[in-house]
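Interim report to the steering committee. The following record documents the input for ABC transporter permease subunit (279 residues).
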Amino acid sequence: MNVQVIAKAQSPLMRMKPWLNISSLLCMFWLVIAIIGPWVTPYDVGKIVSHDIFAPISAQFPLGTDYLGRDMLSRMLVAARYTVGLALVASICASAIGTLIALMAVISPKTVEVVLLRIVDALISIPSKMLALVIVAGFGSSAQLLILTAIIGYAPGAFRIAYSLALNQHELEYVKVAMIRGESKFYIAVREILPNILNSVLADFGLRFVFIVLLLSGLSFLGLGIQPPNADLGSLVRENIGGLSQGAPALLAPAIAIGFLTVGVNLVIDRIARQRNQR
């Protein structure tokens, strides 16, 4: 009886726990920064506000100044929108496209399924970073092209995960029952198979987001990502690489921000996976 009382007393807290853990807070923090960041900058993002380059942390400049004397906090608040925004759009599109094509492959005739698999095999054999370098070097760099590059690079991986999950579900009895009832293939894919693979697809979506953040940051560090006067977190690291020997906050802050962003998303993915396994 006492155990039951304690369990009932703890149940509201347990229901709130997903919103109180550090991984959710980190993800929510970066999402809020991406939305409101440009409107809360203390200084104009491109304005030189100090003659002291690579200035240390101070009350006036909480993250110091960059290699030109611009306020680093202001630049990071704007750069976070590019990093989070581009990666979020690209990962949503890559996961959605990969999952939809996977469902189509599972319910399609064998010939269509084989053709789709061979096309995906060809795309997935190309390393994503090499593909991105070729596309950006050949067609230039823009936000739209970076998103398209990330989608082309990571949609095949999302397809492979969703296809293996959907194929397993397609062989189960509840799908056979739906076929006997005369349900359409579209209905079976969307109403029967998709809900049962959605948690795994969401976990894979989180991984795609992390991969794309690192891809876009790497391209920006090489000078092939977001171009000046705009910048993402990877661009800020590249711009301020001259402050490495001084341990300048202008270099350390964006690098740490990328780390916290990816760690937060990874922790959320791990939490989703644990909850799915417990069920």
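Residues 1-16 have pLDDT under 50 and may be disordered. The committee is asked to note this result when reviewing the revised timeline.
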